[in-house]
Amino acid sequence: MFSGPVAANAYYSLASDGVPDTIVLFGPNHYGFGSGLAIVNEGAWRTPLGDAEIDAETANQILRESNIVDIDETAHAREHSIELQLPFLQYLYGSSFKFVPISFLMQDLESSREVGRAVAKALSGRNSLVIASSDMTHYEPQERAEQKDRLAIDAAVKLDEELYYSTVESRRISTCGYGPVVAAITASKLLSAKEGRLLCYRTSGDITGDISSVVGYAAISFVKD
Fold first, then answer.
1. Between 9 and which of 18, 114, 174, 219 could a Cys-Cys bridge form, CB atoms 3.0 to 4.6 Å apart?
2. Residues 6+ apart with CB under 8 A from 14
3. How many CA atoms lie within 13 A of 38 on its CB side?
4. What CATH number labels 4-223?
């Protein structure tokens, strides 16, 4: 009820942009299980809207391009950050797409950049999409959360992953998926993205009316033109 309406802005934007053949999904590992950077390279994930097929070819290409990503389903077993994106994608595209999930327990700047570079190489010249899943500030008063989150958003829309990372660190922004965002910015730039656009920003306080302790959410697109 909090993040869904914000995420819908991103998927509304995608709805008019054609159907990708493959989608790489980045998300944080909230539970600490499994490898630091974990990919799944076979099978399918089931949601109430049906099965979403893993793109084995792309997953294996990413593995060839990076020495720090491991095959590990354990990291994904309880994690929600990636699977929550699948019903949106299935609503838009049905079963016409394949996807690759990569879970980030390890979220340092250079590791995240390496994943982004590997994904960009694997997707070069292809009809593809990269998505990063993350909340923003957690459990702070709304005014403070908005101030912090705007700083991170400003860095992201500049397509400056180093500024984004340093802003999150220096301002102690409690965003859970900063590594996935760094990887997405890195990959997007290498895949010819020229501009970032803020589509929507809201907090949980905008839904509940309780602004004493909120979580922030943003939908941002990285586009070629």
1. 219
2. 92, 129
3. 20
4. 3.40.830.10
